[in-house]
Amino acid sequence: MTAKDEHLVELDRVLSEPLSLVRDRENSAFDKLLAGCGNRLVLFGAGNLGRTVLQCVRSIGVEPLAFADNSQSKWRSYVDGVPVLSPKDAAAMERRLCSWSPYGRWGTFTRTAERSSNV
């Protein structure tokens, strides 16, 4: 069987899956991701969408460890009590604190920012 055939078989399997199973997986994916890293979370993007995501994760009892953001003007500040780090500092913190997780990470990074582009 070629790689293309394998992909087609997998596509057929996914498309034939009952919608109820798809919804269950969709509803539990974030919870499983968080559980896999001890509910440790870094939000990437400290702008408006990041603030909205912060409210959402707090509403389910998750307190993010930090924001990571590309904007140097936001580094070493706080957004609603959560520190904002550079991506480099956030990654360095991850390397320092990781060891227990089977994924080799102390938390999960969740992207909250979208970069617009002129098309």
How would you sum up this structure, described in words?
With 119 residues, the protein is α/β, with parallel strands linked by helices. The protein folds into two domains: 1-35, no CATH class; 38-119, Rossmann fold. The chain has four helices and five strands, in the order ααβαβββαβ. A five-stranded mixed sheet has the order 3-4-2-1-5. The protein is elongated.
Quick overview:
The protein is an alpha/beta fold and 119 residues long. Helix content is 45%, strand content 14%. The protein has a five-stranded mixed β-sheet.
Query: What percentage of residues falls in helices of 4 or more residues?
Result: 40-55%
Q: Do you know the CATH architecture of the largest domain? A: 3-Layer(aba) Sandwich
Instruction: Assign an overall shape.
Output: elongated
How many domain regions?
2
SSE ordering: HHEHEEEHE
Radius of gyration: 18 Å
Rounded mean pLDDT score: 81
CATH hierarchy, class of the largest domain: Alpha Beta
Low-confidence stretches: 99-106
What topology, given as strand order, has the largest sheet? 3-4-2-1-5
Number of helices: 4
Structural category is: alpha/beta
End-to-end Cα distance = 40 Å
CATH superfamily of the largest domain: NAD(P)-binding Rossmann-like Domain
Question: Count the strands?
Answer: 5
Report strand %.
Answer: 5-15%
State the CATH topology of the largest domain.
Answer: Rossmann fold
Biggest β-sheet description = 5 strands, mixed
